[in-house]
Every structure is written in C-alpha cells, then in structure tokens.
Amino acid sequence: MRFIDKLLNWIFPPKCVCCDEILDYESEEIFCENCLLEWEILKKEKCRTCGQPLWECYCGMRDNHDGLVDAELHLVQYDKKLDNAVNKLVFSCKDRTVSAYFRGVAKEMYKCLYPRLPKDSYVVMPVPRTRLAKKMKGHDQSEFIAKEFCKLDDFIYCDLIYNVGEKSQKLSVNQRERSENAKKSYKIMQDNEKILKGRNVILIDDVITTGSSVVRCAKLIKSKGAKKVYAFSIAKTVR
C-alpha cells in the first residue's frame, strides 16, 4: 500500500462496503469478516434459471436477440426483495464514490470471471450511467469499475459509448419499455473502427436485469467491427 493511501486511511478509516464496520487502516479488503463470509456463500449459490453453480452458468439474457452478447458472466444474483451483502454492495457502488469499493469489485471480476474467457487481448468498456444519475451521484460506478479492472492486466480501456437518455432503465416498467429506452439512450462515438475492428470486448455493468442496455451497447460495438462482446456484471437480477 502506498504511503499516501496509508495516510488517507488514517484520516478516513476504510469501512465495510456492506455494513460500514471500520476495517484495519492497512486493509485493502472491502468487506468485514462477517460480510465477507456472507458474500462468499452468495457466490456459491446456484443459478435460479439453469440450476448450475454461478461460476458455470452461461444463461442468456432475455433481450439478447441474435446473440449480440457472446456470453454474460456475473459474480452473484440480485434479488431486490432481499437485504443481503449483494444488495448492500450494489447500492454502495451506486451511491458512494469510494475508490476501494470499485477496486475490490474489479478484483473479484478479474479473479472469478476473467479466467472463463478465451485467452486473448481485450478492450474494456463500461455501460454508461445516465447524465442525470452521474450528476446526482457524482460518479459512474461502471466506469470506475472498468478503469480499475484495466489496471489488473494488459487491457485497453475505451469509453466510446455515451448515454444521452435522462430516464434510468430501472424506471422502465417492462421488458419492452427497457428495450426501447436503451435504443434511444445509448450512442457510440464515430470513427472508431480502428480501435474495435477484430477485437474482443469486455463490457462492464453493475447489475443486469433484462440485458437491454448491455445488448444495445453490444450492437453498437459490433457495428464498429468488434468480433465478440462479453458482459461482466456484479450481479444478475432474478425474479
């Protein structure tokens, strides 16, 4: 740990991402012991759709028409009716600009999800937050996670997709509305074929529900010549 990080931890002690318990000032973990235990148990759950362990699950997204997303990999399952470590971590990342949280999630993705991909070089891109949400919260959690993920290996970070919408996907009441909102919201910067042509892309989001946002982003990425798109998320929403 760098000296400046140690100093900041003395002034602003690191806290558990889930319960706010104060951690050791030299800790690079984001969980306290109890929350880490719960998190590891939740990672071992079986997919409610296919019954496979999460690390073997390749369940497709509901909106993944034409197979635009080549694989969707997630760490855990998100059930909005529960009050558990998954929900608390997701909301902490959405609501708080704490670098350690994004770094911790990126490490989990690198450790648990990245080994499941074919050996290759990858371009890493976030699914961008709406401008209004970014202004209100002061950050884009997927962007921060993607940037931390790139520090862990020889990845290329790109933020070629931007979100022009003002309506959050979670405000859409059904699958069709989510899909229509995603089509209107996500755009891609022009003249970037040289960056994406023939490349494999890791697309990072925090939570995937129907997959409308990820699929729309994948369509835009592949329109610029990308070969394959793999979606990484903290969690996949379950009913």
Question: Can you tell me about this structure?
Answer:
The protein is 37% helix and 17% strand. With 239 residues, the protein is of the alpha/beta class. It has a single domain, classed as Rossmann fold (3-Layer(aba) Sandwich), CATH 3.40.50. Strand 6, helix 9 and strand 7 form a beta-alpha-beta unit. Helix 4 packs across helix 6 (141-150). The protein is globular. The model has no long low-confidence stretch (mean pLDDT 90).
| Percent range for β-strand residues | 15-25%
- The overall average pLDDT, rounded, is 90
The rounded distance between the terminal residues' Cα atoms is 41 Å
Structural class call reads: alpha/beta
Q: Assign an overall shape.
A: globular
Estimated helix fraction: 25-40%
| Radius of gyration over all CA atoms, rounded | 18 Å
The residue ranges in which pLDDT falls below 50 over 5 or more consecutive positions are none
**Structure summary, number of beta strands:** 7
- State the order of secondary-structure elements, H for helix, E for strand: HHEHHEHHEEHEHEHE
CATH class: Alpha Beta
- Give the number of domains: 1
